[in-house]
Amino acid sequence: MSTNPPDLRPDLAAARFAADRREGQPTIGMVSLGCPKALVDSERILTRLRAEGYGISPDYSGADAVIVNTCGFLDSAKAESLEAIGEALAENGKVIVTGCLGAEPEYITGVHPKVLAVTGPHQYEQVLDAVHGAVPPSPDPFIDLLPASGVSLTPRHYSYLKISEGCNHKCKFCIIPDMRGRLASRPARAVLREAEKLVEAGVKELLVISQDTSAYGTDWKDRDEKFPFLGLARELGELGAWVRMHYVYPYPHVREVVPLMAEGKILPYLDIPFQHAHPDTLRRMARPAAAERTLDEIAAWRDTCPDITLRSTFIVGYPGETEAEFQTLLDWMDEAQLDRVGCFQYENVAGARSNDLPDHVADEVKQERWDRFMEKAQAISEAKLAAKVGQRMDVIVDDIDEDGIATCRTKADAPEIDGNLFIDEGAEALKPGDIVTVEVDEAGEYDLWGWLLA
Questions:
Q1: CA triplet 251, 264, 292: central angle to 5 degrees?
Q2: Which of 157, 166, 179 has its CA nearest to residue 213?
Q3: What are the residues whose beta carbons fall under 8 Å from the beta carbon of 370, sequence distance 6 or more?
Q4: Angle of CA points 422, 38, 2, to nearest 5°
């Protein structure tokens, strides 16, 4: 499970609004775990609470109650969520649990019977009801003013834009549809209004997220476009911000959004969960098993937009995976030459159908295959980054440290999951959110270094 970075987690650091607590103001703390979609849920909950006059505490001791937004995707994530709940109970005592693990309330209360309430993912009203019961609101309309942009847990210059909930896929290793339900797309006007407000508030980069971004809008019975994802991408591309697409399944209509990348309307970046390449493994996963057609799609995308960056994640050691199937994945990687790659060793998840498959792979074999896969991915990344030396490119500044070194990202890098570009000299005057032009003069396995152009 990924955890929101320490400087973005409200249980470890203050969110960016007034920390002073007015007399009599009720205050809530939050621990936000899991993926960016969960982080958006946390932001929405905190925004609603701020609008009702609650203060947000950066620590346990200053909070009248604590909300723990959990992750339940993997058993290891469930364990970490239970640990976070236990810590909050020990440090504060009044704890409300929400998020994906909240879809299994008995699992939580069986370990932590003293929690005040348990709600499932994106059940904002139930969370608010639980907060009201534990800590009644006491708003002061003359003091408790909420910025139009709401509460943000990310740096000011980028923001996640969640466009839908749920998923219609039935992958055997995944329980997301059980926890978050079927695909439910937000109205386009609501998504665009939120995006416009974010850009007006100074956000320079919109990270579009959902469980299945390219399926956006296909759950609407009455729609003007067969694939509303394309229209949404066009509209977002007119806002003047960087627009980065995450969790895009490689449907044929995705080819139609790539020209927007070539035109500079949205970033030339696709985050696509391929998961594997061998058709038999993919069938056991209950995923599309047409790796060859996927290679054709990749070639078509690159033909339209040569600068496109492709990121993906894979699973090794899936039940029944043979050495020959794994070798097919390595060979496919050689052909696909993906730019950014992550890999997970398969693990059982309570409730997943893959648990019942035969021929589970031994842990030591999973580890050995993971090592070989990552060695392959690292070599591809290193070669691709080396080819960027001497190129000029725009980067967005994320941070300036006390030594004046700037940590930046290129258009090929999403925050927290991809690499960075570092500027070692002449960056003292830069500030987070600046978009500047650099020339790359050094490359590593995953990161770049460059110098600032005047």
A1: 30
A2: 166
A3: 316, 317, 343, 345
A4: 50
> Can you tell me the distance from the alpha carbon of 284 to that of 357, in angstroms, rounded to the nearest whole number?
8
The string of pLDDT tens digits covering residues 46-62 is 888 887 888 888 888 88
Whole-number Cα distances in Å, 247 to 244, 421, 422, 452: 10, 23, 27, 32
**Over the stretch 30-87, which tens digit does the pLDDT of each residue have?**
898 888 888 888 888 888 888 788 888 888 888 999 999 998 877 788 889 999 999 9
Are the CB atoms for 341 and 314 separated by under 8 Å? yes
CA distances from 280 to 321, 348, 395 (A): 9, 19, 41
**Residues in Cβ contact with 308 at an 8 Å cutoff, skipping those fewer than 6 apart:** 258, 261, 268, 269, 270, 301, 302
Tokens of 197: 């407000």
Rounded Cα–Cα distance for residues 434 and 447 (Å) = 19
Pairing mode, if any, of strands 242-245 and 205-209?
parallel
Please give the DSSP secondary-structure letter assigned to residue 3.
Answer: B
Q: Which fold has domain 27-134?
A: Rossmann fold (3.40.50)
State yes or no: 305 annotated in a binding site: no
Q: Residue 279: how many CB atoms within 10 A of its CB?
A: 16
DSSP class per residue in 366-403: HHHHHHHHHHHHHHHHHHHHHTTTT-EEEEEEEEE-TT
For the stretch 268-284, pLDDT in tens is: 999 999 999 999 999 99
Residue 26 in this model has a pLDDT that exceeds 80: yes
Q: How many CB atoms lie within 10 A of CB 14?
A: 14
- Model confidence at 293, pLDDT cuts 50, 70, 90, reads confident
- The residue extents of the domains of the chain are 27-134, 158-386, 392-452
Instruction: Provide the percentage of residues in the chain whose pLDDT is more than 90.
Output: 68
Fold of the domain built from segment(s) 392-452: OB fold (Dihydrolipoamide Acetyltransferase, E2P) (2.40.50)
H or E element, residue 314: strand 309-316
174 annotated to bind ligand? yes
In CATH, which of 3.40.50.300, 3.80.30.20, 2.60.120.200, 3.40.1280.10 is domain 158-386? 3.80.30.20
CB-side neighbour CA atoms (13 Å) of 15: 25
Task: Report how far apart, in Å, the C-alpha atoms of 233 and of each of 238, 306, 350, 417 are.
Answer: 9, 19, 36, 22
In 3-state terms, what secondary structure has residue 58?
coil
100 is in an annotated binding site: yes
Q: Count the neighbouring beta carbons within 10 Å of the beta carbon of residue 383.
A: 12
